[in-house]
């Protein structure tokens, strides 16, 4: 059986923040990662509850543990210096020598959350299209749906090349098959895309292969250059007519 010193070593060297409170909700023990994460020493936390850094969120944690036996989820914490951070918290009740304690294990997910917010802005709020696909669409951003008029339901049964006008559809199909086999290459082109209402839009696309959830898929960004394309064609037509 593992002795007490081994558990103390694991507790102290854990990269995750660990805090233990008693039945009254007051701190009795924290590890080094907890102090580093929030800035409070154990002496500063003694006699205080996690409400000092969880604020009103502490009531939610207590409620979940009382009703479900545990809490697990994303939560906002406030450090000693007043800085707000996002953490993933797992908290639960334990019984030791007839006494009740509560353990809280936190991981700082602030950087991950910030990166996700940037990705969300890029994919959901930018004025360019963003697609992830195999032979069919896995993800399309709002801009793509707005431009093409296709809904999520419409796209479920469509192959990517189904919305590309001939003869360009053959090249797109060929490239996708290569990507699904694991070939990594960049492809840029100007393609005619047929919208749901039958119109043809011209997209300048840039496509690559990535590994996504253990599979090879295609990822494409594009901008709508239909207006520019039409102006160029009118200009050419005008020059020919004038000549």
Task: Please explain how this structure is put together.
This protein is of the alpha+beta class and 243 residues long. It folds into two domains: 4-113, PAS domain (Beta-Lactamase, 2-Layer Sandwich); 126-233, 2-Layer Sandwich (Beta-Lactamase). It has ten helices and ten strands. A five-stranded antiparallel beta sheet has the order 2-1-5-4-3, sandwiched between helices. Strand 4 (84-96) and strand 5 (99-108) form a beta hairpin. It is elongated, with a radius of gyration of 28 Å. The mean pLDDT is 89.
Present the secondary structure layout:
Layout: H1 4-13, E1 17-22, E2 27-30, H2 32-38, H3 42-45, H4 51-54, H5 57-68, E3 70-78, E4 84-96, E5 99-108, H6 110-125, E6 129-133, E7 137-140, H7 142-148, H8 152-155, H9 168-180, E8 187-194, E9 200-212, E10 215-224, H10 226-242
Antiparallel strand pairs: 1-2, 1-5, 3-4, 4-5, 6-7, 6-10, 8-9, 9-10
Descriptive labels:
5-stranded antiparallel beta sheet; 243 residues; Beta-Lactamase; elongated
CATH superfamily of the largest domain: PAS domain
Strand order of the largest sheet: 2-1-5-4-3
Q: For this structure, what is the CATH class of the largest domain? A: Alpha Beta
Structural class: alpha+beta
**What is the overall pLDDT average?**
89
Can you tell me the CATH architecture of the largest domain? 2-Layer Sandwich
